[in-house]
UniProtKB/TrEMBL annotation:
It holds the Pfam family Usp. Residues 1-147 form the UspA domain. It comes from the Bacteria. Belongs to the universal stress protein A family. This is Nucleotide-binding universal stress protein, UspA family. InterPro entries: Rossmann-like_a/b/a_fold, Universal_stress_UspA, UspA. It comes from Propionivibrio dicarboxylicus.
Length: 147
């Protein structure tokens, strides 16, 4: 039924557990995994007159974000290789991860988005929001939420 499953990850323990479950699901479904990581953009700071800013900071930040993305996505690739599940990876810079998740899923012809949920309820969910909730409410592609 599913052929290409987008698995967004941030490298957190919950996300790592979700990746494992997604790999098992993909293996049973005969699908491939498209692992995704949203790299943060360099934070814009507004300084007053006379502030010192290291001109290399944006480049250093971008390099660190790329290294983090590679590390996290390499872990997914390794798990897929071990389970003999085909895998592609994708990392894009985005300060709005849910939009990037939906955009990549659409561009890569994914037919399922497999995500984790922190399981927040009540006021915590209302105040903190959730990338998973935003994907659920905006995506036209089916979303499987693992908790």
């Amino acid at each position: 039924m599913f052929k290409n499953i987008l698995v967004p990850t941030d490298g957190s323990p919950l996300s790592q557990e979700t990746v494992k479950r997604a790999i098992s699901f993909a293996k049973e479904a005969g699908a491939k995994i498209t692992a995704f990581y949203a790299k943060p953009s360099f934070p814009e700071c507004f300084f007053g007159e006379g502030a010192l800013v290291d001109p290399g900071s944006p480049e250093k930040f971008a390099l660190m974000a790329e290294e983090e993305a590679l590390r996290i996505l390499d872990e997914v690739e390794s798990g897929c290789r071990e389970a003999q599940v085909p895998c592609e990876t994708c990392a894009v810079e985005s300060d709005i991860p849910y939009e990037a998740i939906i955009e990549v899923a659409t561009q890569r012809d994914c037919d399922l988005i497999f995500m984790s949920s922190h399981g927040r309820r009540g006021i915590g969910a209302l105040l903190l929001g959730s990338e998973t909730h935003k994907v659920l409410t905006h995506s036209k592609i089916p979303v499987l939420v693992y908790r």
